[in-house]
Specification:
The complex is a heterodimer of chains A (445) and B (497). In chain A, 38% of the residues lie in helices and 13% in strands. Chain A has 14 helices and twelve strands. Chain A folds into two domains: 66-78 and 350-444, Aspartate Aminotransferase, domain 1, CATH 3.90.1150.10; 82-343, Type I PLP-dependent aspartate aminotransferase-like (Major domain) (Aspartate Aminotransferase, domain 2), CATH 3.40.640.10. Chain A is of the alpha/beta class. Chain B has 497 residues and is of the alpha/beta class. In chain B, a hairpin with an 8-residue loop joins strand 11 (417-418) and strand 12 (427-430). Chain B is globular and about 75 Å long. The two termini of chain B are 44 Å apart. The chains are: A alpha/beta (445), B alpha/beta (497). Chains A and B meet through helix 1, helix 2, helix 3, helix 4 and helix 5 of A and helix 1, helix 2, helix 3, helix 4 and helix 5 of B. Strand 8 (297-303) of chain A pairs antiparallel with strand 13 (474-475) of chain B, so a sheet runs across the interface.
Chain lengths: 445, 497
């Protein structure tokens, strides 16, 4: 392969027009002491060799088919319809840049506008941006937004949340110099409101972040009280979601959410060992919040002749205009994964989404019933959607169970904080669940 | 004059393709209510139900109304819109890769981790750095990691009072925005009459409050900061760290290395310099490399290797923590790995050489056009990009850089970055890359020449352009005003009521 179209003759011609005898002359302003005089020791492979080389390396991975994977915690195995893959291979989407020139980029902008509009319905929020990096960074930026919008001085985050996501929140908050406090769950597994009530009344709470369903898979019964609490303290209520729960679950607006964040990966994007993902970021209709949003927003506008058009809007929030006064530094985002989600949602439609969501709900309950009959117990008695948790010791110690299950070809959930969380995905059929259970029977004997 | 016509479908919004029934299917809701109390079940959902052919036609029509680098020259400055080798897309779409859950145990992923580890080795080699993290999902995300490392480094050394980051006035907007997110004050360093860092101003800005300096080299004018060694020395002398913004690496890959110039921290944009497709704005990837003494500050987990095993090392003493839920944009990293091996060390150097040759040739073709001026360092070769000013044209004809950019669209050519860097009036910032030929460059120069002539003879045609794209000139302000905006379909419906 040759990726450089200039021929030798063209190179010679250009050099002679520029009045140089060698390419090196173009670099003569680089001080000699920093010129790299060696050759980079990187082999060159042709397409065939590369394919073989990569294949050999990847054969060292152990492959777990998604029906044997019960991991979740923020990203989930998903079946990606052929249509989604097909559209994403359209080079007009794949190899375009950020739509800086609106007139020649209407197609991409319409697709992103549709993503924003479809997500707005799913989340029941009024404005959704065209993507953040992932759930974690979206949640972190939502907390920072709450500080800017309310002038508060402390944010509240759950003690129980996946360790990796909590680490991202802590990094962003440390960076911006924002104080935080971790609130616990009460004995029932709900938000410990009595703890919140004890937070010093002199502190200006900027925001409270909660997940729905939470880390252990549960729908906490007092989300509305947490929302009311933070609103009474003039702060914002930020809710993190698995968007595939929302076709059947009430949207977070029902509990007073001001900002909704979440992970768009389950809406038609592959896992890829955790990236690229799709950070969801939506807010309710409030210009103060909208003006403080991070990231790009595509809006409907018009041409000077009055024709319908799409454009990047409210750009004065962004770094290329506002520099250090921007609402965020985000520039490149995850646009293509947002397009994938727009196609995915459009393809499944309302009916397909509600069915899928309900299937996950049903199968998670089926699985738990099977597990319960083998002595497994849940830490809480709360409603759950597609994930639930198990205590760490019954009927077998989790660590040893997980190790044995890997040997049997299963990734049977993970411990992300205090309990063992098991996640369902749409590849799980009755047969797959029975296969899992019979392997578990072999392990617990 | 131009034969180009972009497709124009009168394609409605996906919401307008069918009548929406927001009620949930009763039988399904009934089933759900066996598992969930009624009060948690949603009542309505306004999402269209369409057939597969309708959905496919819709999105294919949209795709036809979008320009991309596979359609033609896309010379956005500092964006490095080079050709994306197709085999990389195919290899990175392996079903076995797409299905790997990030919590899958690392001992079962030795092949993937080995690839990522090797990629870090190559990136270290190319940049002259010692250790890399692959976690940042974009260039600005990498910058953010970089400035957080600077912050943590000073904290650990008991020097938290260092709260100033120096940034040239020609820098990318993400630099000051990233520094601000890490809690720093931004001190802007002006450019000197040659378009380089003003050494006196730098000297004056340095103090015991200096945490570090962020620099792009070559800078956004396409000029190599030839005083770089001295700059780094001065910043180091007062105790600051040097940060390299890798957006412009395509100028020097294989020819000069930031690690040899005195930089302590480097971020790269794999979606620019290493040929991964940009996806209409992302996903990108912004790995960060550091000198060995900063390894302990890198984000966790660090992809490590010991006793023949690859593993995720969560044990870095002074890590800044995490900036991404998992380990980075793996499919982008894999594409970049493929790109690097397809080119090899020699190909990487050659790409930079050709990118710089193309850039200087195009500059040579257009710099003397009427209405065009070349600000800063006139006799000096540019690197992979250059910046001209259309200020004289505007003065002569009233035609602006934006007007000329829009008229370029009529030729099926993507305009360069405009109005950036901010220190050049009516700026045209052009980066052709190595992926275009001399004839492409000639066509681009010819089009620019024709448009400029037209600006003098028939300015209205230029000012009212584009004429051959899906739609005419967009009124962006209309969509941003609270009274007329409609950022989502539901907002549009309310507005129309």
């Amino acid at each position: 392969m040759n990726f450089i179209p200039n021929t030798k003759d063209e190179v010679m011609e250009m050099m002679s027009l520029l009045g140089i005898d060698s390419i090196e002359e173009l670099f003569k302003d680089i001080p000699r002491e920093v010129l790299f005089k060696e050759a980079l020791d990187i082999p060159r492979l042709n397409e065939f060799e590369l394919t073989r080389y990569l294949g050999e390396k990847l054969s060292k991975n152990q492959f777990f088919p998604p029906e044997k994977v019960f991991l979740g915690g923020g990203v989930w195995p998903v079946y990606i319809p052929a249509v989604v893959k097909y559209i994403l291979m359209r080079t007009e989407f794949l190899t375009s840049y950020t739509p800086y020139q609106a007139e020649i980029s209407q197609g991409l902008m319409q697709a992103l506008y549709e993503y924003q509009s479809l997500l707005a319905e799913l989340l029941d929020m009024d404005v959704v941006n065209s993507s953040m990096y992932d759930w974690s960074s979206a949640a972190a930026e939502a907390l920072l937004l709450s500080v800017r919008a309310t002038k508060g001085d402390i944010v509240l985050i759950p003690q129980d949340m996946p360790y990796y996501r909590k680490m991202v929140l802590k990094t962003y908050l440390w960076g911006a110099g924002v104080e935080y406090m971790e609130y616990p769950l009460d004995e029932e597994g709900n938000i410990d409101i009595s703890f919140l009530n004890k937070v010093d009344g002199g502190r200006r709470i900027a925001g409270l972040y909660a997940e729905y369903p939470n880390i252990y898979g549960y729908i906490m019964e007092n989300l509305d009280e947490a929302g009311e609490y933070v609103h009474n303290r003039n702060g914002l209520f930020i809710v993190g979601v698995d968007p595939l729960s929302l076709p059947i679950l009430k949207p977070p607006s029902a509990y007073g959410a001001d900002i909704v964040v979440g992970e768009g990966q389950p809406l038609g994007n592959p896992l890829f060992f955790g990236g690229p993902l799709l950070g969801i970021f939506g807010v309710r209709r409030d210009m103060k919040l909208i003006r403080e949003m991070p990231g790009r927003i595509i809006g409907l506008t018009k041409t000077v002749d009055g024709e319908r058009a799409f454009a990047m809007i409210l750009q004065t929030r962004e770094q290329h205009i506002r520099r250090e006064r921007a609402t965020s530094n985000i520039c490149s985002n995850e646009a293509l994964t947002a397009v994938a989600s727009a196609v995915y949602i459009s393809l499944l439609g309302k009916n397909g989404l509600v069915k899928l969501s309900t299937k996950l709900l049903k199968y998670s309950h089926m699985l738990y019933e099977m597990l319960a009959s083998h002595g497994f117990e849940q830490p809480y008695n709360l409603p759950y959607f597609r994930e639930f948790s198990l205590t760490l010791d019954k009927p077998i110690e989790t660590k040893s169970l997980l190790r044995h299950m890997i040997n049997k070809g299963f990734l049977f959930g993970a411990v992300l904080a205090r309990y063992h969380t098991v996640s369902l995905n749409e590849h799980h059929s009755q047969q797959a669940l029975e296969g899992l259970i019979s392997s578990i029977e072999e392990v617990i004997g | 004059m131009t034969g180009f016509r972009q497709a124009k479908w009168d394609e409605p919004l996906i919401y307008e393709l069918s009548k929406i029934d927001p009620s949930l299917p009763e039988d399904v809701v009934k089933e759900a209510s066996r598992y969930l109390p009624e009060k948690y079940i949603r009542k309505t959902l306004s999402i269209p139900d369409l057939s597969e052919p309708e959905v496919v036609r819709h999105f294919i029509r949209l795709s036809q109304m979008n320009f991309s680098v596979d359609l033609g020259m896309y010379p956005l400055g500092s964006c490095t819109m080079k050709y994306n080798p197709k085999i990389c897309d195919y290899l990175a779409s392996e079903p076995s890769l797409m299905n790997i859950h990030p919590l899958q145990p690392e001992e079962t992923l030795q092949g993937l981790l080995e690839i990522l580890y090797e990629l870090k080795k190559y990136l270290s080699m190319i940049t002259g750095m010692d250790f890399f993290t692959l976690q940042p999902a974009a260039g600005a995300h990498g910058e953010y990691v970089g400035v957080l490392i600077i912050k943590k480094y000073h904290e650990v050394h008991g020097e938290s009072h260092r709260d100033e980051i120096l940034i040239p006035d020609s820098a990318h907007g993400t630099n000051p925005a990233s520094a601000k997110m890490a809690g720093f004050k931004v001190i802007e360093i002006p450019s000197d009459p040659d378009g380089l860092v003003d050494m006196d101003a730098l000297e004056a800005a340095l103090s015991d409050k200096t945490a570090g300096m962020m620099l792009t080299n070559p800078n956004t004018l396409g000029l190599f900061e030839k005083n770089i060694v001295e700059i780094a020395k001065k910043v180091h002398e007062v105790g600051g760290l040097m940060y390299y913004d890798g957006a412009n690496l395509n100028a020097i890959a294989g020819l000069a290395r930031p690690g040899d110039m005195g930089f302590d921290i480097v971020h790269l944009n794999l979606h620019k310099s290493f040929g991964t497709p940009h996806g209409g704005g992302g996903p990108g990837s912004g790995p960060v490399g550091v000198k060995s003494y900063l390894k302990e500050f890198l984000p966790i987990p660090y992809i490590d290797h010991e006793d023949g095993m690859y593993f995720l090392n969560w044990d870095l003493k002074n890590s800044i923590g995490k900036v991404h839920g998992y380990y980075g944009n793996i499919s982008v990293l894999l594409r970049a790995y493929c790109y690097i091996l397809l080119n090899g060390g020699e190909g990487i150097r050659k790409a930079s050489e050709q990118a710089v040759l193309n850039s200087n040739y195009l500059l040579w073709r257009i710099k003397d056009l009427r209405g065009v001026s070349l600000p800063y360092s006139k006799g000096v070769f540019r690197k992979h990009e250059f910046v001209i000013s259309l200020e004289p044209l505007k003065e002569d004809t009233g035609v602006t850089a934006k007007d000329v950019a829009k008229r370029l669209l009529d030729y099926g050519l993507h305009p360069p970055t405009i109005y950036f860097p901010l220190i050049v009036k009516e700026a045209f910032m052009i980066e052709p890359t190595e992926s275009v030929s001399k004839s492409d460059l000639d066509r681009y120069a010819d089009a620019l020449k024709a448009i400029i002539e037209e600006a003098y003879s028939d300015p209205d045609t230029v000012r009212s352009s584009p004429h051959n794209t899906k739609i005419g000139r967009v009124d962006e302000a209309y969509g941003s005003r609270p009274k007329t905006m409609a950022p989502t379909y539901r907002w549009l419906l309310e507005k129309e009521e």
